[in-house]
Amino acid sequence: RISFLSTAEKPFLSKLALQMKLVVFTPKESPPTRQLYVIFDGTVRYNGRTLGPGSTFGESDVLLRQARVRVKAVCNTYLQAGCVGPDVIETLGDEFPLAYWSIRKFTIFRALADYMISSLREAKRRATLDISRVKGDRRDRRPSGEVIEPEAKEVSRHFAGILNLGKVEEII
């Protein structure tokens, strides 16, 4: 069920599963970074998204050694997950280079998507501040009163469509 592991060889998946540690976190607790988590039960808020059973998080922390920002997850409910660290994945990568490359490729694209989303959020924040200084504007507004620039909405929808991220309004 995990998309980026769907092409991995079965022996790789077996060894990865055997190396996983089972962990449980309480609501509002933040799982440690630098781990790849596979959610078995519960929900967690990670990078602006709510993730549930079958989802993963922490890929970029594990596989991008020079990640500038480590995103913290916060549990919404009790969370049961399996986790592995970067050393396990790199060791398995020596034995299964195709599976390792597949995971790295997914991680790079996910990191790019996360970067673009954070850049769009920052651009939207700046545009909102600039526009809020102008009196009498007739731009779209959210129920909270926040201004949404038409150009920013269109760019956001375009990138969300390319990256298959879902509704833009939920992301930014």
TrEMBL record:
Domain of life: Eukaryota
InterPro entries on file: cNMP-bd_dom_sf, RmlC-like_jellyroll
Entry protein name: Cyclic nucleotide-binding domain-containing protein
